[in-house]
Amino acid sequence: MKEFMTYLRDYANLLREASVWHNSKDILAPVINEQNIAVATDCYIYEFYCYISIITDLQVTYNIEFKKGSGDFEYKFPQAAADKAGKPYFIAIKDGVPKFQICAGTKIDGIFDSEENHPDISFQKADANDTPTEDDLIIIMDAKFKENEKAKLPKDEVYKFITIVGLFSLPKANSEKIEFFKYVGLDGNCLITNANAYSSPNDIRMLQKFVIKEVQHFSPQKSFSVLG
Amino acid sequence: MDAISINIHRAQVSITNTRDLEDVNFSSSFSINSEQRHLGIRDKTLLIIAEPEKESEDLRFISQGKILKVNSVEVVKPSKEKIDSNILNGFPPPKDIFVHHFDFSITKKLTKNNLLSDLEYSLKEVNRFNKPIVHFRRQFRVIPQDDFNTIINGWIYAARTVFGRLVNAIPRQNKLEFMLEAMNKFSTIDFKEVSLQKGLDFLYDYIDRRILSRGRLLVATNDLIEDKLSDIVPIEDIGFRNPATGNEDTLHPQAQIFKKIFELQGKADLRKYVNQAISENSELESRFLQIFTNETWPIDLRI
Q1: Is the pTM of this model over 0.80?
Q2: Whole domain around residue B129: which residue ranges?
Q3: Complex ipTM
């Protein structure tokens, strides 16, 4: 019992530390209610995991350079959507030539001012400036985290992503080809999730019609698969 | 009254060395100052000697003993200055103080699970889990028979201890959310009706789903940066900043904490270890189940 009590004490102390961010004291798992239902899926921790996973995959083909942000954002990525100016991002370089930028949560100007959208991950042209427009886009990705990995992406999230892709008039003709390595199927506008895709692997006609992909089971414990 | 515990930092105990109180057959005397003329402490009342731990909020139950003799009661009248000062300040007049003197002897040294922090979830009288020592701050307190037996034997109610330790380790917001989800799951607002074992299973799921799932992502992200990007980004500085609140957090130290949790899980899986502890402790678990039959889950929302 003594050994068990020590184990339990250690476990509880670590859990106490882990469940609150050590700097800000914000809680790690924000409480979900009807008013902030978005919190359930817009998990910046998952979005960042997807972002870093993709960057490290691109490293095989490209030379990856870090463009640090400025001021408070030098090495800090915005927890929620933000303007691109002053935020850090990565640049993919091949044969000494910058090929594209990989940005996290950046706001992109579309054709309608009323429709503000900021994809979780955006691949932007190498010469895109601090106020990117849809013309700077190559592909976009959104990351949806489900605490229940057995869940399925809901219809409305897939439809919403299709709309955003459409608003940005993606995919663009003649855009830079992104050369992934292990993530080779991710070359397109992807809705990424750790859970199951909305579409059935046997019927991806809708995904093909709207030229989007669903990436399912994308998590540290699993092997992902791409639909579309 | 069957049993009391005395706090040796508060009650006046005649000893030269605290160690004396660990010696079986050691006898001495103590006194308690009270506004009450009768305390209900009699010859042969059982005694637990307790001492607050230095530099922590914990308390050690040192030994078991008994009252040998109840001595005379001294009456201390308040001083004239005190009476005058109370009148001047509009306070009620000071009361007489009764100083109760007792002789006692030590019958057993307590060694097993004798810290309040070991026993807090096994004692029925304890409900301030944020600061259980408040229950023992006074000079003495009455201890019900069940709690007395628990203390002198160092018995632990494993299921309740695990539940309490874990649930009170998570932030208050998450505790409230857990309770709401549990109400929904078990279709009741009265957790008395739901066994601790069922509550524990639901609690593990909650912690895994809400907190550890994020931890696994943080650890994986941290490892990717460390392994592949450390040449171009400083791992110690990478993190998040909330544009709305200005709060910022660094990923690496948080991932390190989760790594330790997963290491601990790797050594012994929490659920399995708990189940093993409970089954090895089954006789005591049934005893405690009887004692705590009308008690709800030990969730303290003050923490």
Answers
A1: yes
A2: 3-156
A3: 0.96
